[in-house]
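=== RUN LOG ===
request id: a7f3
mode: sequence -> structure
chains: 1
length: 951
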Amino acid sequence: MRGGASGRWGSAGTTPRSLSTGSSPRGSEPGSEDGEELVEVTLDLQDDDTIVLRSVEPAAAQAALGALRLPAPARPPGELADGGGASSSSSRSPSIRRTSSYRLLQFSQELKAEAMARARQFSQDLTKRFSRSHSRDESHYQQAPPSSGSGIESALAARAERRQRAQLARTRSGAHRALRGLRFISGNKASNAWRDVQTNFDRLARDGYLSRSDFAECIGMTESKEFALELFDTLSRRRRMKVDTINKEELREIWQQITDNSFDSRLQIFFDMVDKNADGRIGEAEVKEIIMLSASANKLSRLKEQAEEYAALIMEELDPEELGYIELWQLETLLLQKDTYVNYSQALSYTSQALSQNLALRKKGSIRKISYTLTYYVEDNWRRLWVLALWIGIMAGLFTWKFIQYRDRYVFNVMGYCVTTAKGAAETLKLNMAIILLPVCRNTITWLRNTRAARVLPFDDSINFHKTIAAAIVVGVILHAGNHIVCDFPRLIHSSDEMYAPLAQYFGETKPTYFTLFKGAEGVTGLIMVVCMIIAFTLATRWFRRNLVKLPKPFDKLTGFNAFWYSHHLFAIVYVALIVHGQCVYLIRVWYRKTTWMYLAVPVCLYAGERILRFFRSGSCSVRLLKVAIYPGNVLSLQMSKPPTFRYKSGNTCLFSVQQCHPLNGIVILVHPFSITSAPGDDYLSIHVRQLGDWTRELKRVFSAACEPPVSGKSGLLRADDTTKKTLPKLCIDGPYGSSAQDYGKYDVLLLVGLGIGATPFISILKDLLNNIIKMEEEEGASTDLYPPTGRNKPHVDLNTLMRVATRPKKVLKTTNAYFYWVTREQGSFDWFKGVMNEIAELDQRNIIEMHNYLTSVYEEGDARSALITMLQSLNHAKNGVDIVSGTKVRTHFARPNWKKVLAKIASKHPYAKIGVFYCGTPVLAQELGKLCHEFNGKCTTKFDFHKEHF
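=== RESULT ===
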């Protein structure tokens, strides 16, 4: 066993040939009686005529027989004083040019002296360490005194044998996979970032020197400053320097080392970061320290708390001989062979051959490509297109009808095209003010989703259609009110008496003024509507509703969901003013031509009926809170009793109203829609709410006050249940209401993508799928029990049994597979649904559901900052079956998924299948997934149907 880690240098691209040689003093044979120990020296003979020292270690007698013996070279006194192992010395050994056999002989003679001295010292240190570790069994040592030495030799021989196997495996492993590992700087940054590093140096340097504290910012590691500082100290230690400042040349040298393409070079740097005392060995304490450093760099606070446990796990795996340390080659073996431990939720990796089975890879001409693109666009959006076309056509027809009607009237001679435009816009406003209520009639839309109307109407886009109509109303108000104020009213006021005379029946005998026109019922109601619309439309914009606009107090109350919710109720005033405005309209005296009420009658009555139903239903559907828990990431979990008449589907939402007594404002009622996370088969209702705005912040505050602090022996969560002494707020529910996710059952395969709290509707779907799987298995077992064996000497089946089996409805599950991708940036998020994921992993014996967790706070696989986390993850799951990051049986991948590979995998695995892609999260990823689904629909036999929800 060698005393330290072996460094590998030499030019990139060369292929080393290892020469393992034995050496003993004065050329004695291995079995000589001079008492000297044998040494095994391993050299690399490079193709570029250089020799690289691989290792110097004691050799077993069997391994030394027949070996070529080379003496060891002398080392400078400074290096001998370090007391380090071979790694430390070899890391500073220069490559020697092989010009002749004489140079090789001279090199080997110089190598001998120190090699033997270091081997003796290493053997003595190892004997003492091994003896101390076995001092507990004193009786054994008394009966067999030579056992210590034999134990050391057997341990060394076992480790030497493992090392030889590891070296053989290294030569057979893929070099490409090795080169992708242990990157200190990502590949994209490394090639182009030196210019940015120079710029940062010029900005941060003082008097031409960069301080250690600014090193992380200079090289672009601001998010992992502790790791960067440790890297700085390691590279300084390798150069035998302990400085707090470096100049630009030294920075360039450091940059070249950390961006080196050689895997061996990067591995040596990583090893040296762990091996702080530079003795070529890594102890358990050093492993624990680097685990804590990696956990800090990747924002894994829980991993830091368990660093000692995981350090022991690594030592147990890499040090089975119990020598108390590990070396470079063992760390390398774990890094390169970590994938052999991973047998759960493998990351996506499909070959081009597999993809070609389903993907159409032929190149198309430009005309054919445009045709395919247009065809699939129409196929994906035909419901939206025909509704929009019908709506725009109706508006255009109404505008044209009124425009022509007023152009043929006398008023056109006075006011011109101003009045025709204003009246045309007014007619479209009547239509839009009527139909804008239809997309928010939740009960009606939920009912229509279960009818054939869902085949032709895009109910998933109801809120988007609501917003589109609102935009058209803004345009109509500008055209209508703008033309009245700045065009036709001035022309009316400044018209001659002869021109005005025919209009006196509408405006009075006296020519009106601006004030006269505005003080009438028409002007007042118009002004009220405009003001209310401006307030409601402004507070409904994303900037105000999402609290993106920061206003000083007390104006901060104008932002957030509450401001949006209550300002929308101003439309009750708007509709009253609109009806009055329509009845007092200028230029019309016949009642049946005043059509505003005709447009509004049905939609307003329908919406009013829905609100009345919601009021009474929410009051009667009061629920009892069963459990309250507040999870990491400001997530509130509410579990409540389910009313007997409350029936819902997975993916549905509910309106939750919370009544609380406020000391200043009395009883305050908070209302908000949330996705249901429990399955329809569960005997309870549950929701998960994350604090994202003022409404959810207030909700969390209310329930936090009712929760009790954690007690010993339980998790550190704030909880409340039936035994809680504090009074819980009164909770009422209204619903359920439909959503796009409720139609998951009509697809062959599901792809469920949730971002953070956006996983909530899909948890219900996964639980429902699991319940259906269990029911199917129970029905299959029951059917088998009802069919007794028949045949000779066996009882016959009676007719009653056959009829009972034949008439029993069987559960048919159309969905054959479901893929769940949960992307989050906080480790604590996995606590929200840990129980559900473990239950699915345990009970889904048919592997229908495949789950993938992604944590974006951890650097991607191959980055040096996450390398040790990946090793630990693989080891712990192989040993304990639990992922160290999520605490579940589901593997956690790092960084963000490659969605193109995800869809390619599913498309190749399920040809000719109809796949429902359901997404809940921010709009940015929705655009990417939508484009990818459209792209794959155009080049493969699989049909992707994309649905999205935003929170």
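=== NOTES ===
The chain has a mean pLDDT of 75.
The CA atoms of residues 414 and 496 lie 9 Å apart.
=== END ===
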